[in-house]
C-alpha cells in the first residue's frame, strides 16, 4: 500500500473537519426545530442524525396540537382532534405542503359532552340513543350507533372534516359493539360493520381519496365488505398494557388480523402507553418487525414519548 502524500493528508483533515462541521450544523438545526414544541423529543431528534428516519413517523395528539406545534414538529402522519386543534383549510394545506398527512379523530361509538352537538339537558336515555356514561372516561357516553339521529350527527361531522381538508378520519370506539352484545343486542356487530361501511361510502363520495382508519375491533375484517371499506386499522396496547408485557395468547388473534390488513397493502397504526425507555424501544422494534407504524404517548394523548 502506498503512503499518502502530505498534501493528501492535509486534504483529508480538511474534509474531515468540514464533515464534522456539517454534522454539527445539522444536529443544531434539528434541535432548534423541536425547541418550538414540548411534544418533539430532543432525544429522538438527536438520534435522527446518526440513524435513518423511519419510513413513516406517526404522532397522535388529541390535546394541545395547534398549528404552530404541528408545523414545527417532524412527522409524516398525525391523528389530531379537529375541535381541539382548530385547524382551518389554510393550516391543513400548509401542513400537507410539508408532506404531512392529517387524520381527524372521531368517536363513533360514544358521544362526548364537550362537543358542539351535545344538547342542553342531554343525559342517559335522552335522547334515546344515549346510553350510560363510560366509568373510565367521564363525559363519554355509549350510543346506539345504529340510531339514525346519531348517524346524522356523525355524517355532519364527517362532511365538516372532509370539507376542511383532512386526509382522512380515525374512527374510535368501533369496539362499542361488544358492550351492546353483552347487553343482549344480538345484531350489534353487524350494525357496526354496516355503520363503518356507510361512513366510508359517505366520505368517499365527498373525496374519493379520503382515508378511513378504524381503531380496535380489527376482527371485523371477517365481515363481508368491511375490509374493502377501510384503508387501514389502528390498535391500542398491542404488546404492552402500559408497562406490562401482555401474554401472547391475549393478542395473538389481533396480531393475525393486523398482519392480514398490512398484507392487503393497508396502513396499520399501533399506539402504546408504556413509559419506560426499554419498553418503548421494544414496542417500536416489534412494530417495525411487522411493518406497522407506531406511536408512544400518554393515555391522555397530550405528549410524545419517543426514544
Task: Provide tags for this entry.
3-stranded antiparallel β-sheet, disordered N terminus, alpha/beta, 44% helix, 5-stranded parallel β-sheet, 13 strands, TIM Barrel, 307 residues
Description:
- With 307 residues, this protein is an alpha/beta fold.
- The chain is globular and about 45 Å long.
- 44% of the residues lie in helices and 18% in strands.
Strand content: 15-25%
Give the C-alpha Rg. Answer: 23 Å
| Nearest-integer average pLDDT | 85
What overall geometry do the principal axes of the alpha carbons give?
A: globular
The CATH homologous superfamily is termed Aldolase class I
Q: What's the domain count?
A: 1
Extract low-pLDDT stretches. 1-54
Tell me the number of strands: 13
Tell me which CATH architecture applies here.
Alpha-Beta Barrel
Main beta-sheet annotation:
5 strands, parallel
CATH class: Alpha Beta
Short recap of the structure:
The chain is an alpha/beta fold and 307 residues long. It is built from eleven helices and 13 strands.
Q: What is the strand and helix layout of this fold?
A:
Blueprint: H1 6-34, H2 42-50, E1 58-61, H3 67-72, E2 77-80, H4 82-85, H5 89-97, E3 101-107, E4 110-112, E5 130-133, E6 140-143, H6 148-164, E7 168-172, H7 176-182, H8 188-206, E8 211-214, H9 226-229, E9 232-236, E10 240-241, E11 244-245, H10 248-263, E12 267-272, H11 277-290, E13 293-296
Parallel strand pairs: 1-2, 2-3, 3-7, 7-8, 9-12, 12-13
Antiparallel strand pairs: 4-6, 5-6, 10-11
Helix pairs in contact: 1-2, 6-8, 7-8
Amino acid at each position: 500500500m502506498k503512503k499518502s502524500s502530505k498534501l493528501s493528508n492535509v486534504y483529508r483533515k480538511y474534509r474531515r473537519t468540514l464533515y464534522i462541521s456539517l454534522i454539527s450544523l445539522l444536529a443544531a438545526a434539528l434541535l432548534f426545530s423541536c425547541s418550538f414544541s414540548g411534544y418533539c423529543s430532543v432525544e429522538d431528534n438527536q438520534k435522527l442524525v446518526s440513524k435513518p428516519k423511519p419510513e413513516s413517523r406517526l404522532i397522535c395528539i388529541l390535546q394541545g396540537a395547534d398549528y404552530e406545534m404541528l408545523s414545527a414538529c417532524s412527522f409524516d402522519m398525525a391523528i389530531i382532534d379537529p375541535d381541539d386543534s382548530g385547524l382551518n383549510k389554510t393550516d391543513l394545506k400548509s401542513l400537507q405542503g410539508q408532506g404531512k398527512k392529517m387524520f381527524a379523530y372521531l368517536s363513533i361509538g360514544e358521544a362526548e359532552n364537550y362537543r358542539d352537538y351535545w344538547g342542553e339537558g342531554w343525559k342517559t336515555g335522552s335522547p334515546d340513543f344515549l346510553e350510560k356514561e363510560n366509568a373510565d372516561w367521564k363525559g363519554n357516553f355509549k350510543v346506539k350507533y345504529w340510531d339514525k339521529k346519531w348517524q346524522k350527527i356523525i355524517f355532519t361531522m364527517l362532511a365538516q372534516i372532509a370539507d376542511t381538508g383532512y386526509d382522512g378520519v380515525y374512527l374510535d370506539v368501533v369496539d362499542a359493539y361488544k358492550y351492546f352484545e353483552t347487553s343482549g343486542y344480538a345484531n350489534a356487530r353487524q350494525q357496526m360493520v354496516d355503520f363503518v361501511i356507510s361512513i366510508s361510502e359517505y366520505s368517499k363520495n365527498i373525496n374519493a381519496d379520503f382515508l378511513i382508519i378504524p381503531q380496535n375491533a380489527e376482527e371485523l375484517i371477517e365481515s363481508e365488505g368491511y375490509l374493502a371499506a377501510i384503508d387501514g386499522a389502528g390498535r391500542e396496547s398491542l404488546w404492552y398494557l402500559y408497562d406490562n408485557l401482555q401474554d401472547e395468547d391475549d393478542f395473538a388473534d389481533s396480531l393475525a388480523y393486523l398482519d392480514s390488513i398490512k398484507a392487503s397493502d393497508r396502513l396499520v397504526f399501533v399506539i402504546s402507553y408504556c413509559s419506560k425507555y426499554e419498553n418503548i424501544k421494544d414496542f417500536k422494534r416489534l412494530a417495525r418487525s411487522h411493518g406497522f407504524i407506531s406511536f408512544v404517548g400518554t393515555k391522555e394523548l397530550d405528549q410524545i414519548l419517543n426514544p
